[in-house]
Amino acid sequence: EAQVTQNPRYLITVTGKKLTVTCSQNMNHEYMSWYRQDPGLGLRQIYYSMNVEVTDKGDVPEGYKVSRKEKRNFPLILESPSPNQTSLYFCASSLRRGSGANVLTFGAGSRLTVL
Amino acid sequence: QQQVKQSPQSLIVQKGGISIINCAYENTAFDYFPWYQQFPGKGPALLIAIRPDVSEKKEGRFTISFNKSAKQFSLHIMDSQPGDSATYFCAASPGGSYIPTFGRGTSLIVHP
């Protein structure tokens, strides 16, 4: 089944304790992206990657890191989490269509709570 | 600044009614306008999309209306059902870009 898999789905952690949220896709998609979803603010892009070893900042990159060493994986790293990073996180991927009609496939989400 | 403005933030409709969600954009370079549907506990998924060369696209009970001159587009859900209760996001992408800009979402509740 074509899908984007995120882990963990739920995580409670404490301020300053480094964590990684993994994302993997099995569709050979070039483009991958991380979003956070907060009430009233919708989906805000954190980082994205056009292909292996190519990453760029989205709208809210502060406090996050990413890497794209393999095409299928795009982990999100919070090196020193803070309570304002408590949110619902989504990984998404798509083919790079020249027409711009990119259909994003989203993971099921990772709910992170930072105490 | 919001490049895609979505309204209303929440919407309550009776079963069988019409749900209407509106979006407006500023960037005239946008040329692909998808709508995503998100059920509780799930990630968003593509529902329907339109290009600006047509004014309307219909798929079942879901219709996108597009007004290029006004830079507005809307989602109409006819005969709304409780199973349509979800959060709906409009989005827009410039030509040749893979990066959509999302509206802030509309939480739709359809009462039985």
Tell me what you see in this structure.
The complex is a heterodimer of chains A (115) and B (112). Chain A has 115 residues and is mostly beta strands. Chain A is built from no helices and 11 strands. Chain A has strands at residues 4-7, 10-13, 19-25, 31-38, 42-51, 54-57, 65-66, 76-78, 87-94, 105-106, 110-114. In chain A, strands 2, 4, 5, 6, 9, 10 and 11 form a 7-stranded mixed beta sheet that branches. Chain A has a 4-stranded antiparallel beta sheet with strand order 1-3-8-7, with no helix packed on it. Chain A is globular, with a radius of gyration of 13 Å. Chain B has 112 residues and is mostly beta strands. Chain A binds chain B through residues 4, 31, 33, 40-43, 45, 48, 50, 90, 92, 94, 96-109, and chain B through 6, 9, 31-32, 34, 36, 41-46, 49, 51, 89, 93-100, 102-105.
List the helices and strands and how they pair.
The complex is a heterodimer of chains A (115) and B (112).
Chain A: E1 4-7, E2 10-13, E3 19-25, E4 31-38, E5 42-51, E6 54-57, E7 65-66, E8 76-78, E9 87-94, E10 105-106, E11 110-114
Parallel strand pairs in A: 2-11
Antiparallel strand pairs in A: 1-3, 3-8, 4-5, 4-9, 5-6, 7-8, 9-10, 9-11
Chain B: E1 4-7, E2 10-14, E3 19-25, E4 30-38, E5 45-50, E6 56-59, E7 62-67, E8 72-77, E9 86-94, E10 101-102, E11 106-111
Key features?
heterodimer, A: 115 residues, mainly beta, four-stranded antiparallel beta sheet, 11 strands, 0% helix, 50% strand, B: 112 residues, six-stranded mixed beta sheet, five-stranded antiparallel beta sheet
User: Largest interface, per-chain counts?
Assistant: A-B, 27 and 27 residues
In whole angstroms, the N-to-C terminal distance of chain B is 37 Å
The oligomeric status of these chains comes to heterodimer
- Largest sheet, strands/sense/barrel of chain A: 7 strands, mixed
> Rg of chain B to the nearest angstrom?
13 Å
Approximately how much helix is present in the residues of chain B?
A: under 10%
Straight-line distance between termini of chain A: 36 Å
% residues in beta strands of chain B: over 45%
Order of helices and strands of chain B: EEEEEEEEEEE
Let me know the number of strands of chain A. 11
Sheet with most strands of chain B: 6 strands, mixed
Helix percentage of chain A:
under 10%
How much of the sequence of chain A is in beta strands? over 45%
The outline of chain A comes out as globular
Number of strands of chain B: 11
Q: Please state the average pLDDT score of chain B.
A: 94
Low-confidence stretches of chain B: none
